[in-house]
Amino acid sequence: MFKFLKGVVAGSGTGLKDLPYNIGDPYPSAWGSWNHFRGTSKDDGSPVSIFALSGNNAQDGHLAAGRNGVKRLRTVRHPNILSFLHSTEVETHDGSTSKVTIYIVTEPVMPLADKIKELGLKATQRDEYFALGLHQITKAVSFLNNDCKLVHGNVCLASVVVTPTLDWKLHAFDVLSEFDGSNESASGPMLPFEWLVGTQYKPMEMVKSDWVAIRKSPPWAIDSWGLGCLIYELFSGSKLGKTEELRNTAGIPKSLLPDYQRLLSSLPSRRLNTSKLLENGEYFQNKLVDTIHFMDILNLKDSVEKDTFFRKLPNVAEQLPREIVLKKLLPLLASSLEFGSAAAPALTALLKMGSWLSTEDFSVKVLPTIVKLFASNDRAIRVSLLQHVDQFGESMSGQIVDEQVYPHVATGFADTSAFLRELTLKSMLVLAPKLSQRTLSGSLLKYLSKLQVDEEPAIRTNTTILLGNIATYLNEGTRKRVLINAFTVRALRDTFPPARGAGIVALCATSSTYDDTEIATRILPNIVVLTIDQDSEVRSKAFQAVEQFLQILKQNYEKTNAGESGATGGASAIPETAGLIGWAMSSLTLKGKPLEQAPLPSSSSAPSLASAASNAASTATEAPSVKASHHTRSNSDFTDQPAPPSPTSTDGWGDIENGISEGHDDDKDGWGDLEPLDEPKPSPALSNIQAAQKRPVSQPSRPAATSSRPKISTVKAAAKTEDDDLWGSIAAPPPATTSRPLNLKKTVQSDDEDPWAAIAAPPPTTRAKPLSSGRGRGAKPAAPKLGAQRINRTSSGM
């Protein structure tokens, strides 16, 4: 069995041919005659430990004991016993001499003595770690003695190794043998290889070779003595030299001293059972042992116990040895989260521990678990991830975010919980820079379009702020189509004052993307209206924005006159933009409280939306008539501007109708009745109809002159490019006003001269009934009646 690899090498220096592991550097110490090497797998490069034992011939006693150790290690399995992976025996020849070597491959470990020096723990932290390790080794020894009826025979510091997660494992099974106390006829040694054990580690009955007394003793007698030797070596910090040194108890903790003395009793029958040592609650119950033990049996705990434990864990972890937390507790926590046994508060503890790691270690030990958690259906886990996304978002690559994280996060945009929608929105501030242009334009912007008409005013405000912050990551064509319409058509007309303020700030923050024409014809007309807003903060921001954009236009004008290269408006944006965007966000936090810069705890975030909604309700109720009259006068001044082209559905937005304009009548929105001030004379064919009523009414048949103008307008709109208006087809109406524009005259040229024609709602068809077929008699009495109604309604609005 042990000689299946008979590959003999020609010289002693060539090494093994077929061992599927690479042998690395040796450790300075190992148990007995074994040599302990670092190693790696040839298949995947995973680390392993390789133990080697050599002898001059196959009948060497050390080799026989080594074969016994291999057999026992292969068959005995326990969480606190070294895990066996592979073994082989190789015979090499060098001239007339031969050499036999046994190799054992195990999980990666290092000698306990070396690990203690590496950790360098002191005082309480050292004692807590020793208690954890002794607890693990005691369980292994108790398993051998009480469950398997085996005797290890040489429990000491050298027979203990430590895994990368700082678990203690028992090995060195060369001496291990069955306990045959029931065999009264046996007279020979119960442990055939007891000669390998140093005299200082042997109890008195083994020194005397009194095997009769040993067989009459309990199965744990020899190994209980060995545990006493291990405890002494741990707390004395030196290797046991002679048996008499065990009497020196100066370094033994007082809570452990009584059990230590019972383990080293001179009478084998009175020695403490190793299983009883585990019941020493005074010594083994400390923060580290209790925490690790709770994690080991996590599946047996109920939800209340888990929730309480994980909420306290971040504070407890700060008091534990940092190295042990990162190498032992962190992997346990990540595994429990990944497989669903941990509660949502465990994520907070995981991220806190992860913050103590280097960037490279965080990407290897923590990030894979977090990425898998985004696919979780547990709403509490999703909320916790979104609240803490700023702590790990920067560590994720763009490909991981785009392909594995965003598809799961995007489901929160349409969640029924407003709180989760808001957290999803805020997470995009961290994730959006890592998304591809295809995802940004094809998916994210569509979600933001819907959120800009969300029922929660805080979410509408935060959507505008987010769009202003991620504008630099959009390509130029997308910015041209989206930004102006999103900020002016929607944000500046929102009924929630902080949302209007956010729209102004977003326009200022993205001023580098607009040219002079856009600033003069599409941005300034919308901002100037807000200089008479009922909210003082909105008015203040509007005045600052007007000054900023006028300054940009002025600088570009001066450059043009000076013969310099004609730069667009964005090249000379005022450096106060950064302050404005920060001011908008901070003012929103102080006033409406829908946005917080730090991660939001679940207990304090829910009220933010409620307070924002209450502010929105109070704002909506304030509509003084003075403001309405001012809006009427302002709107009439803009009607001479050329109309922007109508949006099309091919830009990806036309099919996303949010219904923001539902419930608003066109005669109340202040935008549908904008008319040019100068009305050209109508054609003679239309004079009778215009005398009868002041608005256009669709007729089944009309002279050619009546349809010529709409056709021209339609052709013009179709000839425009689609870069104009990604948000126009779903544009929101402006804030509702109670008055009417002063100019009430209609003209067939309004589509060409009205700058808002592309986004204005169509005129309602319910104000007047169609003309009767008897045109001659029905038209004359209708004219004074309709004219009187228009005049009366206008005078009441004024």
UniProtKB/TrEMBL annotation:
Domain Protein kinase stretches: 2-284
Biased composition annotated in UniProt, kind: Polar residues: 685-711
InterPro entries the UniProt entry points to: ARM-like, ARM-type_fold, CIK-Related_Protein, HEAT_type_2, Kinase-like_dom_sf, Prot_kinase_dom
Intervals holding HEAT repeats: 523-561
Residue ranges with Basic and acidic residues bias: 662-671
Any one GO molecular function term: ATP binding
Biased composition (Low complexity): 598-625, 756-770
PROSITE patterns hit by this protein: HEAT_REPEAT (PS50077), PROTEIN_KINASE_DOM (PS50011)
Annotated stretches, region: Disordered: 595-798
Protein name from the UniProt record: Protein kinase domain-containing protein
Species: Arabis nemorensis
